[in-house]
Amino acid sequence: MEDRTKHTYRTHLYDFIKDVLVVCPNCEGRALVNTNGYTIFQPEAVNVRVVCGHCGYNKILERLSTRSKYLVIGAPVDPYFHLPLWLKMELGDHLLWAYNLEHLDFLEQHVGAKLRERNGFKHQVKSIGAKLPRWMTAAKRREEVLRAIEKMKKANNH
Ligand SMILES: [Zn+2]
């Protein structure tokens, strides 16, 4: 049951890995991993690069198909270069993280829907709460998670 839940969430994560915000390995500012349309369903990654607008760091990914390169999905690093994600925040024993602002919105919508459901409102968003990590939707955590998401959004809006 737990495995199935995780798997479903991981499947959904693939939607968010087109542009991933990471910590620049050179200046520790916010950098962007851009896949230029590459999806994980293609056998080889081409034109996947990390670009930093602050210091100009710019690196293109070598082919993923070599043995030493592998995709990491579902961890607080970008899937290609394995750089630490920019959007992350510790909540007790857990780490809240998102690939990009769109992903953060997704989490906010669905944790929020869970909260409204609990408060007796019929929610419009199709219930996919089960696709989120369980700790995130635990009743005692929801408001804390939503506050953290709000904070991260504020800090990263242009
Ligand atoms: Zn940089």
What would you note in describing this structure?
It is built from 4 helices and 6 strands; from the N terminus they run αββββββααα. It has 158 residues and is of the alpha+beta class. The strands form 2 sheets. A 4-stranded antiparallel beta sheet has the order 1-2-3-4, with no helix packed on it. The protein has 2 domains: 17-85, no CATH class; 88-156, no CATH class. The protein has helices spanning 2-13, 101-118, 134-137, 142-156, and strands at residues 19-23, 30-34, 49-52, 58-60, 87-91, 94-98. It is 31% helix and 17% strand. The site of zinc ion has 9 residues, from loops.
Give every kind of bound small molecule, once each.
zinc ion
Number of strands: 6
Taken from the alpha-carbon principal axes, the silhouette is globular
> How do the helices and strands follow one another from N- to C-terminus?
HEEEEEEHHH
Number of domains: 2
β-strand percent reads 15-25%
The percent range for helix content is: 25-40%
